[in-house]
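dumping this here so i dont lose it
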């Protein structure tokens, strides 16, 4: 439990976390950058950013499908 509290106190900003999550969606990342992020990322920020990115991705797909089906 102490490890979780320590991880939650990490100092990377939320926008830095969003950037790391978007890179993970893209699937291309340098190993050194990945290791640096894992030391700084706040797990709560990762979950929130991941859910938001997934929602935006699904909404984007739905909009594309509606455009293709309507046209």
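and the seq i came up w/
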């Amino acid at each position: 439990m102490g490890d979780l509290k320590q991880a939650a106190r990490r100092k990377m900003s939320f926008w830095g976390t969003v950037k790391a999550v978007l890179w993970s969606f893209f699937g291309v990342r340098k190993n050194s950058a990945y290791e640096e992020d894992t030391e700084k990322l706040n797990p709560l920020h990762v979950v929130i950013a991941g859910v938001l990115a997934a929602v935006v991705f699904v909404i984007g797909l739905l909009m594309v499908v509606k455009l293709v089906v309507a046209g």
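The two ends are 54 Å apart (CA to CA).
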